[in-house]
Amino acid sequence: MEFEKKLKELEIKIVELENFSKEKEIDLSAEIEKLKAEKEMMLVETYKNLSSWERVSVARHPKRPYTLDYIEHIVEDFEELHGDRLFKDDPAIVGGIGKIDGKRFVIIGHQKGRDMESNIYRNFGMANPEGYRKALRLMKLAERFKLPVLTLIDTAGAYPGIDAEKHGQGEAIARNLMEMAGLSTQIIAVVIGEGGSGGALALGVADRVFMLENSVYSVISPEGCAAILYKDASRASQAANDLKISAKQLIQLGVIDDIIEEPLGGAHRDHEVMAKNLKTKVLEAYAEIKDLPMMELKDHRYEKFRKMGEVNQGV
């Protein structure tokens, strides 16, 4: 990432000095520790005031933890379930049943790949209609067995291909919105990376909606917005700020409920710590809503989304 250029140079210098010290059997620990302290200070300063566009870069970082990484770190006895029972399985969305701290959850999330081959297989985390229908099938399963639902959102958007449209992409997303609004079980949603358009919202109608500190959530990508609004995709950084897509901006607007802190330097630097932070917040949220009467829970969920975008007359 461009804003990390000086930081990267310092990290390379530390590695080179460590290798030199080991190779020549010279004690350079004092100099190395001094450089590491300088690196920590630089990390703090760099990440303290990231712009919205810089947060987009962090949210898209290829080493950022994805759904299966969180499942590996915080979920026990996970059993992945496949298929929408209508057409086929969609690898862009993974889901199944597992335990978080002994409590059984249905976990559903977007899944990107780590390299070109796996990204092609996962369609870069952009789901087809069968992916959203699979997600809904699992939510209905959770409702039937009175299990809470955890969704992990990380997609640039629903797949916009011709076949996806032919198979009812818009209808699949709309049905998820409608069904989630009235689902008779607890739902917790976390934006772990990119939360793009209807492709994100199709897993985002929840009782509690959280964002990771450096994630983004928006009706359109900054590049797409700039191309439409300014007729110039190169103005994506301006569009990112205008869209108000960062967690700090969205909590002020009441779109999300809270922000989950990331390790210093972003979630990609420490998957284990990030997973622990996410687990803590999810369990806290579940404890808050697990004993609410179901009608009250659904009423609160409906009002939560209904009031978004209200205009105060005279302001």
What can you tell me about this protein's structure?
It is a single chain. With 315 residues, the chain is of the alpha/beta class. The chain folds into 2 domains: 2-49; 55-306, 2-enoyl-CoA Hydratase, Chain A, domain 1. The chain has 14 helices and 8 strands. It is globular. This is Acetyl-coenzyme A carboxylase carboxyl transferase subunit alpha. Acetyl-CoA carboxylase is a heterohexamer composed of biotin carboxyl carrier protein (AccB), biotin carboxylase (AccC) and two subunits each of ACCase subunit alpha (AccA) and ACCase subunit beta (AccD). It is found in: Cytoplasm. GO terms for molecular function: acetyl-CoA carboxylase activity.
